[in-house]
Amino acid sequence: MSAAPTPAYAGPSRVFSGMQPTGGLHLGNYLGALVKFVRLQDQHECIYCVVDLHAITIEHDPKLLQQQCREVAAAYIAAGVDPKKAIVFVQSAVPAHAELAWIFNCVARMGWLERMTQFKDKAGKNAERMSVGLFDYPVLQAADILAYRATHVPVGEDQKQHLELSRDIAARFNNDYNAPNFFPLPEPLIQGPGARIMSLRDGTKKMSKSDPSDMSRINLTDDAQTIANKLKKATTDSLPLPAPDDPKRFENRPEVENLVGIFAALAAKSSDEILQEWQGKGFGAFKPALAEIASQKLSPIADEMSRLLSDANALDAILADGAARAHAISEPVMKDVRRIVGLWPR
Ligand code: AQP
């Protein structure tokens, strides 16, 4: 089922996004999502969540999960999210997410979920042994967004299909319950040079927290030496950097395209501008320059993260305030949802 065109939703424009506390954040999370989080907070009401309910869909260590939530929240704030402007909180602190996910489970269709490529990628040949939660992940994601009737969702390109599912669920709910325009059809905000950052080892795979090789990614907390070392060892070829007007400039060179894209995103330039400066030169010079700009951007974030994490009480107070503000928005929505669906009022 494809979503109908965005109807005349009359509610306010609102941004929602989240990240999983499944490990340290990396450059892909930063360029694909965090940079946009910061940019949007001055133009919209923004809600940024640490999605721990998503993190338990795969094996996790209960003793570490709360601290991992703090680390993701600290990364948001250290990257520039202002918790006075934007709402920053942990998903499981607000009951609407799980409740609405159940209701949406009864709206979404098996066939829609069976088409989700991220489940296929993550489960591989072990689909039968994966948790039902991992299969159902995009439904919970729809609930995350729509519990706040969010209209815009900044994400990396890997989340495009999940966003389409959220739109389908919203449209079907509105239609099946004869509640026209109750939920907006949320729009993904994907564009931008960092929308798809690939692994440093294999330019056809996305940079990911769960990649077993730490050399495949640049973590937000890596120091300058580690970043330089990872980039030095990043897969490239022996050819020089291509010219921007060469139509075959990245043909069979996904790793080169990725490094140029990362440079461009960090320098807030286009890939063509980077190639204009670097065409004909080799990676022996390019990689150290890239390492330099990467550590210039990331080291203040790492420093601020460690400062925030050194005072867990202060960070937890920010998250408690965020959860209260999030609940104040989602509870009236859930009251309406319960009424529309015919559930018992609270
Ligand atoms: N490589 C990437 N390039 C651009 N954007 C990316 N994002 C993730 N990887 C890239 C964006 O970061 C946000 C948070 O993602 P997440 O933590 O919820 O989970 P994910 O997308 O599954 O990220 P990972 O790193 O690949 O985690 P694991 O390995 O745990 O699954 C999203 O907006 C995502 O688009």
Structural write-up:
The protein is mainly alpha-helical and 346 residues long. It folds into two domains: 14-196 and 311-341, 3-Layer(aba) Sandwich (Rossmann fold); 214-307, Tyrosyl-Transfer RNA Synthetase. It contains 13 helices and five strands. It has helices spanning 27-40, 52-55, 62-79, 96-105, 110-114, 117-123, 132-146, 160-176, 224-232, 254-267, 271-278, 283-309, 312-341, and strands at residues 14-19, 45-50, 87-90, 152-154, 187-189. Strands 1-2-3 form a three-stranded parallel sheet. Strands 4-5 form a two-stranded parallel ribbon. Strand 1, helix 1 (27-40) and strand 2 form a beta-alpha-beta unit. It is globular. The model is unreliable at 1-5 (pLDDT under 50). The structure holds adenosine-5'-tetraphosphate. Adenosine-5'-tetraphosphate binds next to helix 1. The site of adenosine-5'-tetraphosphate has 20 residues, from helix 1.
CATH superfamily of the largest domain: HUPs
Q: What's the overall average pLDDT, rounded?
A: 95
Query: Whole-number radius of gyration?
Result: 21 Å
The end-to-end span amounts to 33 Å
Name every ligand kind in the structure: adenosine-5'-tetraphosphate
What structural keywords apply?
mainly alpha; 346 residues; Rossmann fold; 13 helices; 5 strands; binds adenosine-5'-tetraphosphate; two-stranded parallel sheet; globular; Tyrosyl-Transfer RNA Synthetase; disordered N terminus
What's the gist of this structure?
The protein has 346 residues and is mainly α.
Helices and strands in order:
Blueprint: E1 14-19, H1 27-40, E2 45-50, H2 52-55, H3 62-79, E3 87-90, H4 96-105, H5 110-114, H6 117-123, H7 132-146, E4 152-154, H8 160-176, E5 187-189, H9 224-232, H10 254-267, H11 271-278, H12 283-309, H13 312-341
Parallel strand pairs: 1-2, 2-3, 4-5
Helix pairs in contact: 3-12, 4-7, 7-8, 9-12, 10-11, 10-12
Bound molecules: adenosine-5'-tetraphosphate.
